[in-house]
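Weekly structure sync, notes
Attendees: PL, DS, HV (note-taker this week)

Item 1: Transcriptional regulator, XRE family with cupin sensor
DS walked through the input record. Source organism listed as Caenispirillum bisanense. Sequence as pasted into the shared doc:
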Amino acid sequence: MDFDVGARLRAIREQNGLSQRQLAQRAGVTNGTISLIEQNRNSPSVASLRKVLQGIPMSLAEFFSTEMPPREKIVFKPSDLVQLTTEIGKAGKGRVLYRQVGDLRNRTLQILHETYEPGADTGRTMLQHASEEGGIVISGRFELTVGDQKDILEPGDSYLFDSRQPHRFRNPFDEPCVIISACTPPYL
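Item 1 (cont.): predicted structure, written out as tokens:
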């Protein structure tokens, strides 16, 4: 059975959400090189193909594997969320739990399911990072401080701000607060 290098490269490139130009830039080759390989008009040397695959990144072994890489995951069930914080301490005693939608490879947006238990606080030292973030309160209440502005948010309330401003999330209330948030570029 003949191995179609061009079709394989095109499928992997598209699966990774890359244009020919983007892959060429990442790999340090011309986009004409990528185009010729994908059209099977150029049979690349092992060294050339390896260089192109480093732009994905992918090993030669993975490339020549007969199995196609898994399709990009689009839908995530609650059990699929990636736990970013450890569950230290006793339940209901000030824990902050972050669960992320998907992994962040080749992503510029981070989506989180956040839970702030009673007494939870991101810390007296205000957070600051080069991002933008926003969210919607699903249940409970929390105190948001951005710069010198302090607000109490309740279910249905939302926020959006430049994360370079000093900010803090705190739950001084008796019930947990659940927020769905997004941050770009990712911070956590």
